Amino acid sequence: MKVIVKDNQIEKAIRALKRKLTQEGFFAEIKDRRFYDKPSVKRKKKQAKAQKRRRKAMKEF
Question: Whole-model pTM?
Fold first, then answer.
């Protein structure tokens, strides 16, 4: 991943980097991996995530 800094505008480049990382789901993955989840909890989270995706897809129809 690259962020180009133009005219020494560091703040603007940092904002762009944060935006890209958020879109890629980097921060969400860091949050998920912060603590150990038991396999049963992982399965339940995975199922809930899939169900949420399905509901969202049906809502878009």
Answer: 0.64
